[in-house]
Write a structure and sequence with these properties.
With about 230 residues, the chain is mainly alpha-helical. Helix content is about 60%, strand content about 5%. The chain has seven helices and two strands. The chain has a two-stranded parallel ribbon. Helix 1 crosses helix 2. The chain is elongated.
């Protein structure tokens, strides 16, 4: 007959003493350990019965039967809960994939629309911006508070190290990298920061691949649609 797991674990622990005893002595020692373990388990069971108000062996046997049934029902309920949770996770995952695909399609469609100027005149922090900064934020579709936060970070880093590269600026501010590049170029044009000096002594030229810088886009006289801010 196969022993229960707790008894097998106990026998594995006492095997170390087999090297110091004869086979008969070790067998007797092992049986003593198993008897002690059984007595401890029985005492623990009787104490549990006492705590639950059981005073007879018949009531104790009935209690163990009902306890086994409760544990079986609990295990079944847990399995059903796990199955239900797995089904819900699959449903949520499928909906997430579907929503992501719809969002990606909408973003792709919106990306084809011409860039518009955002009306930020009623946004929080607008009074802290100069005229060129207001125009920059409008054309970048960036509200004043995120812009001011990026400005504070870039100017603080420039004051600390004495120069600042465009790549470093993009890594420092937590906004779109394209907007960060335009902000960096705007600061260079206004003289607030200076790019690193090359070995020939000239400052590195400010240039960027892509559309015209936003702070120069003001020269573009084409009419731009105005989008009212929901800020």
């Amino acid at each position: 007959k196969r022993r229960p797991k707790d008894e097998r674990d106990l026998l594995n622990k006492v095997k170390v003493f087999a090297r110091m005893q004869t086979r008969e002595d070790f067998d007797q020692f092992s049986m003593g350990m198993l008897n002690e373990h059984a007595l401890r388990q029985r005492i623990k069971q009787l104490q549990e019965w006492r705590r639950n108000g059981i005073t007879t062996l018949e009531d104790g046997a009935q209690y163990e039967v009902e306890r086994s049934q409760r544990l079986s029902r609990r295990a079944t309920t847990q399995r059903d809960s796990v199955h239900l949770l797995e089904r819900l996770q699959k449903i949520v995952a499928s909906r997430t994939i579907r929503d992501s695909a719809s969002e990606a399609a909408a973003q792709k469609q919106n990306s084809r629309k011409p860039a518009s100027i955002v009306d930020i005149e009623s946004a929080d922090g607008i009074e802290l911006l100069s005229g060129p900064e207001k125009d920059l934020c409008s054309r970048l579709q960036l509200f004043p508070r995120p812009y001011l936060a990026a400005k504070e970070v870039l100017l603080a880093e420039y004051a600390r190290v004495g120069c600042l590269k465009r790549r470093q600026a993009c890594e420092l501010v937590k906004i779109d990298s394209t907007k960060a590049r335009w902000i960096y170029d705007f600061f260079v044009e206004t003289g607030w920061i200076k790019p690193p000096v090359r070995e020939d002594g000239d400052a590195a030229a400010v240039s960027i691949d892509g559309p015209m810088p936003v702070y120069l886009a003001a020269l573009d006289t084409r009419e731009q649609p105005v989008v009212k801010s929901e800020f």
